[in-house]
Amino acid sequence: MRTTRTLRTALLTAAAAGLAATVLPAAPVAAAPAARTAAAPVFLAAAQWPASHTPWTAGPVRKGLPEDGSFCTVGTTPAAGTRHRDFRTELDTGARQTITVAPTTAKAKALAAELRTALATCLERMKEQDPGIEGVSKYHGRVNVEEGAHVYSIDTSYPEAGSTDIGLYAVGRDGRTVTVLEWGQLGDLDTAPLKGFKKTTATAVAKLH
What we know:
The chain has four helices and eight strands, in the order αββββααββββα.
């Protein structure tokens, strides 16, 4: 996806495709074998996202990176050790959670730092790619859970088209496990559930293990 505007569209499209594919036995991640020594990280449930005008629906958990990766973090998260899950509502709101289990705690810490940098500089790269975009990027502080999580927003508009979009993002870590949350919809930061998103972020990191 190219910009924050396309984040929302891509999340909704991917979520719809994921839900449609639930009938395929190979699509969701298989149940953990009995011999596994460590439990896989746990994803958010649909109801744990901030309340929307229509209920959230969760797609299946899938291995690897999403085909339509986020413009902000593309090229940062490795496919190995990564799984993702898309969520959608019946209106213009979509979300995604990505979880990566790194080989070591040090590598997880480095990945989380790289993801934070990618989010902090994302709007600049958007403007380089699309000169018609205007926007404001903000850092909304640390969420004190496990090794910590950090929340960002990217508020964009296209004056010529008269459209505005808001994206909320978070990066959190628990030991070797790093999670990224993405939430997007039409509107601006004033209409976004920032407080609820921070609560979702705390829940997501706390339930990883």
